[in-house]
Recover the amino acids of this structure.
């Protein structure tokens, strides 16, 4: 695992392109995932969070990100992975989705990869930890396989409980 | 006066100026309305008429420049009428004010249509256009036949007629005729006509060439040399003539009239104050809010440093500590200064009432005098925006239900004209807004009877204060008949809810036969809150101080169990439901025995609850941050803040907690 290096990205483009492009890869358990780099604001180490009453267990709470209150979702708990440790190496990806800022906790962040359209295959019906609705494709890269995630769809989903029903309807 | 032609600016994208035009025009219309309401047709105040005229004039100019031809055409007619009034050529009648007020409304509609918010009501606009035209023709002014200038000089005024025809290559030397015209308008009141005869078709026009010429009537007491000086930069690059303004041929019959009205030579002074707004700039609220956020950050960082410094040896680190205390003072002052930027005078909402009261009083056939006071009291923009609707409701109610008709007032020996007072004042960290009338007051017996009829619990034994509170019950209305002004009984409960939502409170006082008064007490700002920090288990939470009645360490005998879950605490002679916070928010490792913790007595909406916390941590001002911005609403939590150590603490929503606890007990 690499030390969490700060990766900052420009403002996200208005449309999500899950064709070619650059992807930030992270690991959840034994699977490797990729998100559109344009959605990533920064990467931080896991910090103490303030618990929110009544929130589901995978919402760890909120943190203070330079004055903004940002909710933190532990994707490992969300996808019911067996282990979810919090140590010095636990990493949070701060995402910019739908004009909101959300932090997600993952097992580790690997690198930023450039994928060409040929390297991206359609997502088959298979049993990844993530519901196939949120998978836009598979990235093949030598011996590695990346699961490309539509992070906006994932974060705004009703079961993520991150937004009010009203703001969900607006999206 | 010629209508400014828009192709002169072709090629520049004007749409980015539209918002400014809309904002300024809206302000201009508000100003016109306010001035019209002040205007007494019998003794027209020259200054007020000038103000109205100027507002109409700038709207017209802007509308023509940006190509909103309907708006420009309408305002042009309005301006012509106003100009006639201003110069004394037209007398002002009582119903003219109504006509002009309706014209202002129509302009608002046109403006909204130009902005893209809905469509203008064309039939009303056309009817008003016809009415204005008719009004103009009813008393033709000598000068109104020509479109070049409808101005009929009222008094022998000093002035200059300037003909300015720049050479085609004027722009090449870096000169801008607009700047010259602006410069000229500083010398006095300008009537500028633009000559577009030389303008070729767009295809033939050269963007770098100046095809326009201007004729300016400058009214004002200035020297010829002052005017020549304005043109000194373009000397040799234009044809220029400056001549004393000749008196236009005036009707012999009008001359004496004009002399009588001659005191109206106040125009230069008026045009001076027109430009006195140079000391302010227009800023988007988003920028201010981000500034406030940044300062909030600074305050937190400062508090963090302070905490670290407390552990240092004061002797060894004297200089550092001295610097830190200076930083503390500076950040505090900076925070106050930045917060004050968001403050607006309450006049922002009050200014809508003269018109509303006038219209409503006419509709209801009542005579009302509206007295405003303390309109300059400032409060947070967010609060102002959210107080407007409740206040409107209260004013309507006072007019409709509170004040009597003329006959009724005569019968009870009162002045036929009722008085409605709207006042605002600072009181401690709060602002107090009162709506009071000298009408019939609340009728205690009627209130109670009505409440019983509506199935609201009420008995004859209620104290006056409790009886008055009945009007806030949902579905309650005191008017025997429902009018289209008010009386549907959906309002007062909403008013109360809205105000409590702002962290405020509503109080009523009433004297039967002498009127009533509703007082609203509001916090100055929504961005900062006086809070008490409490610890529950590992968590620190903020309780809004304005809801805290007291805190106590209960003795075991004060606690009574009602059932297996519910407990009450006896505070003096009162039993207050007890609500352990750790239970409500399922916080682990918190103190569960009331006698080992601290009870904080909260009050909101007339109900009390005692919440159990582990300990009181301190009292501090906190900057309120939204949870909903990136997350969602959480029941029982109104927002969040950042503590001195950078951690997030949640702010309790006291009214909601009380509601939740009573629900839980009912269940």
């Amino acid at each position: 695992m690499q030390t969490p290096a700060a990766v900052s990205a420009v403002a996200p483009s208005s449309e999500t392109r899950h064709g070619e492009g650059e992807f930030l890869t992270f690991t959840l358990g034994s699977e490797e995932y990729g998100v559109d780099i344009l959605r990533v604001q920064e990467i931080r180490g896991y910090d103490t969070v303030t618990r929110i009453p009544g929130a589901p267990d995978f919402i760890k709470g909120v943190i203070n990100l330079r004055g903004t209150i940002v909710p933190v979702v532990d994707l490992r708990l969300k996808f019911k992975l067996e282990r979810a440790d919090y140590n010095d190496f636990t990493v949070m990806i701060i995402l910019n989705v739908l004009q909101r800022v959300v932090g997600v906790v993952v097992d580790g962040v690997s690198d930023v990869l450039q994928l060409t359209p040929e390297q991206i295959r359609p997502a088959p019906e298979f049993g990844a930890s993530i519901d196939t609705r949120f998978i836009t494709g598979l990235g093949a890269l030598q011996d590695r396989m990346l699961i490309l995630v539509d992070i906006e769809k994932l974060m705004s989903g009703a079961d993520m409980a991150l937004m009010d029903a009203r703001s969900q309807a607006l999206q | 006066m010629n209508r400014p032609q828009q192709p002169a600016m072709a090629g520049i994208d004007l749409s980015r100026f539209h918002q400014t035009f809309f904002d300024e025009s809206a302000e201009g219309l508000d100003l016109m309305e306010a001035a019209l309401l002040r205007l007494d047709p019998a003794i027209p105040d020259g200054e007020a008429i000038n103000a109205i005229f100027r507002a109409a004039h700038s709207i017209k100019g802007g509308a023509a420049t940006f190509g909103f031809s309907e708006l420009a055409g309408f305002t042009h007619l309005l301006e012509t009428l106003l100009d006639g009034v201003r110069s004394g050529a037209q007398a002002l009648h009582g119903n003219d004010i109504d006509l002009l007020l309706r014209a202002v409304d129509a302009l608002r509609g046109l403006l909204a249509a130009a902005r893209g918010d809905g469509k203008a009501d064309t039939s009303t606009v056309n009817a008003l256009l016809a009415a204005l035209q008719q009004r103009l023709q009813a008393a033709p002014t000598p000068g109104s036949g020509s479109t070049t200038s409808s101005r009929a000089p009222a008094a022998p005024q000093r002035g200059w007629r300037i003909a300015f025809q720049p050479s085609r290559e004027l722009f090449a030397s870096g000169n801008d005729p607009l700047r010259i015209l602006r410069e000229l308008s500083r010398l006095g009141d300008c009537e500028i006509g633009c000559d577009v005869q030389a303008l070729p078709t767009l295809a033939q026009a050269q963007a770098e060439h100046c095809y326009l010429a201007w004729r300016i009537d400058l009214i004002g007491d200035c020297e010829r040399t002052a005017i020549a000086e304005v043109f000194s930069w373009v000397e040799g690059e234009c044809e220029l003539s400056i001549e004393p303004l000749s008196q236009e041929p005036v009707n012999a019959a009008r001359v004496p009239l004009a002399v009588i009205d001659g005191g109206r030579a106040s125009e230069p002074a008026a045009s001076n104050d027109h430009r006195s707004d140079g000391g302010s700039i227009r800023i988007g609220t988003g920028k201010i809010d981000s500034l406030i956020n940044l300062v909030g950050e600074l305050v937190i960082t400062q508090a963090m440093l302070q905490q670290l410094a407390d552990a240092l040896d004061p002797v060894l680190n004297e200089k550092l500590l001295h610097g830190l205390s200076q930083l503390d003072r500076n950040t505090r002052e900076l925070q106050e200064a930045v917060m004050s930027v968001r403050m607006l005078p309450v006049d922002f909402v009050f200014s809508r009432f003269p018109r509303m009261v006038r219209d409503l009083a006419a509709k209801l056939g009542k005579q009302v005098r509206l007295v405003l006071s303390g309109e300059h009291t400032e409060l947070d923009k967010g609060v102002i925006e959210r107080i407007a609707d409740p206040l409107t409701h209260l004013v309507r109610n006072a007019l409709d239900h509170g004040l009597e008709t003329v006959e009724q007032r005569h019968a009870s020996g009162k002045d036929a004209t009722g008085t409605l007072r709207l006042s605002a004042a600072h009181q401690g960290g709060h602002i107090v807004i009162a709506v009071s009338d000298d009408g019939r007051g609340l009728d205690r017996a009627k209130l109670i009877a009505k409440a019983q009829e509506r199935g609201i619990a009420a008995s004859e034994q209620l104290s006056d204060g409790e009886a008055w509170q009945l009007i806030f019950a949902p579905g309650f209305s005191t008017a025997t008949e429902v009018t289209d002004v008010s009386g549907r009984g959906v309002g007062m409960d909403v008013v109360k809810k809205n105000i409590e939502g702002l962290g405020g409170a509503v109080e009523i006082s009433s004297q039967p036969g002498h009127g009533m008064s509703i007082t609203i007490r509001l916090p100055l700002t929504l961005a900062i809150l006086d809070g008490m920090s409490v610890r529950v288990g590992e968590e620190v939470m903020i309780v809004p101080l304005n809801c805290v009645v007291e805190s106590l360490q209960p003795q075991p005998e004060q606690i009574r169990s009602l059932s297996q879950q519910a407990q009450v605490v006896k505070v003096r002679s009162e039993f207050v439901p007890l609500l352990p916070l750790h239970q409500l928010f399922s916080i682990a490792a918190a103190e569960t025995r009331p006698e080992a913790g601290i009870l904080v007595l909260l009050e909101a909406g007339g109900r009390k609850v005692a919440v159990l916390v582990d300990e009181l941590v301190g009292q501090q001002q906190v900057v309120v941050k939204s949870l909903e911005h990136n997350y969602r609403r959480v029941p029982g939590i109104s927002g969040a803040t950042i503590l001195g150590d950078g951690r997030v603490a949640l702010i309790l929503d006291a009214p909601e907690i009380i509601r939740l606890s009573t629900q839980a007990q009912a269940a």
The first helix of chain B runs from residue 18 to 38.
